[in-house]
Each structure stands twice: as C-alpha cells, then as structure tokens.
Amino acid sequence: MFADFLKRLIEPAPAPLTNDNARLALTALLVRVARADGSYDRSEVDRIDRITAARYGLPPEDCKMLREQAEVLESEAPDTVRFTRAIKDAVAYEDRLSVIEALWQVVLADGVREQHEDALLRMVSNLLGINDRDSALARQRVDKSA
Prior knowledge:
Elements: H1 3-9, H2 19-35, H3 42-56, H4 60-76, H5 80-90, H6 93-108, H7 115-127, H8 132-145
C-alpha cells in the first residue's frame, strides 16, 4: 500500500514531503516509538490521536484514520535508522524538534519511562539531527505540561 511512498522516502536524496506525507511519516514514527516496548496500549493510541489533533487541527475521526494509516506504514517501514534519517532529510528542523516533544509524550503516556525507551529516543533524536540537550529540554517541557 505504501511501497511507493517508502521508496521515495528512502531514496538517497528524498524530495521534501508534502504536508500530508509529512503527517503520515511523523505519525508513523510516533507509532514506532509507542510499539518499541512491545506494548501498544490504549493510553499510547489516545496520546497519538491527541497529538495529531493538536498538531494538525484534525477532528477525531481524521486523527483515527491518520493513525491507522501510520500503523500500517510503520509496520512496512524499514529499520528505525533508515526511516528516521529519511524523515530528517525530508522534514524541516523546526518540525523535527516538535516531533521530539511528541515522541516524549508518547513514551510517557503509559506513566512508565523505561530504559530502552530512553535509548530509542536518544537514537531517534540524534538521527533527526536533534542534540541530547534539546531532547532533554523537550522531555522537561512534556513533564511540566503533564
């Protein structure tokens, strides 16, 4: 279903994504982080839907549809390293920084912060071109707003 999209995304020099494709790719990254601990629960699904509603101004049914498409894309996407690097090359820095905040929201959605989730966020942040300090500040902003 998403084969052409993924092929374009992982080309050596991907073109900037359209708004719809960027939404889909970034939401798929949220899903990937939510699934990283082997448990993809209701709190994480709800958090992803709230993030996409706030970020993109979508009504609930559109958020659900976007998330469901992102779940399929995530399951078909290559390893996290190639997928995240492709997003970095195709998405503006400011958007990537706000994605880190959203990723922290998903990680913290179930109330448990696990070591492997921290490691994954460190790796994803670096692959997106976001340094550890900015990622930590993003996490602190999320902690304060929770």
